[in-house]
What does this fold into?
Amino acid sequence: MSTDSPDSPETPTRLEDLGVQLPARPDPSGLAASLSFESPCFVQGDVDWATEVRLGAFSVFYGGRIAQASIGRYCSIAPGAVLGSAEHPMDRLTTSIVGFDPRYHNWHDVLNRADDVELWNVAGFAGRPVTTIGNDVWFGADVFVKAGITIGDGAVIAARSVVTKDVPPYAVMAGMPARTLRLRFNEATVDRLLRLCWWRFSIFDLAGAPFDRIEECLDILEERAPGLSHYEGLRVDRELLRKMY
Ligand SMILES: CC(C)(COP(=O)(O)OP(=O)(O)OC[C@H]1O[C@@H](n2cnc3c(N)ncnc32)[C@H](O)[C@@H]1OP(=O)(O)O)[C@@H](O)C(=O)NCCC(=O)NCCS
It folds into this structure.
């Protein structure tokens, strides 16, 4: 699709028509360079638009807040999730945001101290780590994931868990801090799933395989995979959002 100018008849007017549902119109001036939402996906929660947020196709984010996070395909994020939120510095005079960048919330203007900004060693949130979520990860309600954590493909994070350490693929995690309850499947099956990387494909190309009988399903998909094209959804990125908004 060409999106050459805002007036181009080819510039879509509604993201929904592209299969990407976002909760609100982001401010076009405050968008991070590498935002990406792959169609189709559904976003109902808060996104920190000024940070790198990527969401893969067939993923749904029902509520909570996501910042500086790269999230794969076929993920399910229940309401209340907090993923990748910033850590405040704890070794400075204050942990307050205004202590490392006085421009936040325009308080420097309100208090007529704009000229003093240069006295600050403005640190901001530069260099904050990316939180990396694999494919087919299910987050139960009210999960917290510490910034910079990596969660493997196929993992399940139980409701109200607090994830402070990396999570291996297909682990079911629960608690505060989250610990491994078990794997979703036996190790041999997990190996097959990770080799197949079925999330390379559109769900519609996988139709007809018995999803509820995992070994049989894998037999069929392993045979079908070489004949399938990898799915490539249209990506709604900063450039496209600026053209539309
Ligand atoms: C993680 C989950 C899927 C596990 O379900 P399950 O396999 O049926 O697990 P069980 O109920 O058999 O529990 C297994 C153990 O994990 C514990 N556990 C389960 N969920 C837990 C949670 N959220 N926090 C802490 N411990 C939990 C159980 O107490 C049990 O511990 P025990 O072995 O010491 O008795 C489920 O508990 C859950 O959190 N679902 C999320 C639902 C949700 O939020 N949906 C939102 C809409 S998408």
Q: What stands out?
A: The chain has two domains: 15-87+127-244, 88-126. Residues 76, 78, 140-141, 156, 158-161, 172, 174-175, 181 surround coenzyme A (CB under 6 Å). Residues 88-126 form one domain. Confidence is low (pLDDT under 50) at residues 1-6.
